[in-house]
Give the backbone structure.
Amino acid sequence: MRRLPIAKQGSPYIIGLAVLLLLFGLLGWTILTVLTLIVTLLVINFFRDPERTIPQDPQAVLAPADGRIIFAGKVFEDRFLNKETLKISIFMSIFNVHVNRIPFSGEVESVHYEKGTFFAAHVDKASRENEHNAVILRISGGEKIVFIQIAGLVARRIDCWVKPGERVQRGDRFGMIRFGSRLDVFVPTDSRLAVNKGQRVKAGESILCHHLKDK
């Protein structure tokens, strides 16, 4: 049986809007009916959760989110890894699929949620100052990958469905951010970058880089 391609987190919004749509239609309030229909279609579009074809390459680090690459390069990650890493940032507009997926197979070492501000997600300071949720993933060889869900100007809710000690596989769904946001991924510096700034990617399908340590 095929699953409905809508994230269950969207059900309360969609059901509530559907009730309003039916009510306005029965009352004959044409303008409100049309406006509610438009909003309902936009919300359904936002919470869509399509299946993805996961690449078979075991060394591929996958995009955890749909969106546009706004940064790809080396940085010193001083909060969770305390070393130089390769950082890849993905900006999600409200029109992107917002269900997030695991970029690489491993074991969740820890999850860190922090409250914060709500700057536009594409600006540099959003990475540290906005509300965010970091997942530290231990991979083969004892190395770690960090991926951080960052709330944006409109986003006000971060969902994360994984817990410390949990084994996860590339492409697994692990959370979502509601209504526009950003994902930062930090991988070992020996990884070979496969994307460029400005490129559009899909969660669970697009390859961000190749982890070369085990090759």
Observations:
- The chain has two domains: 8-46, 60-210.
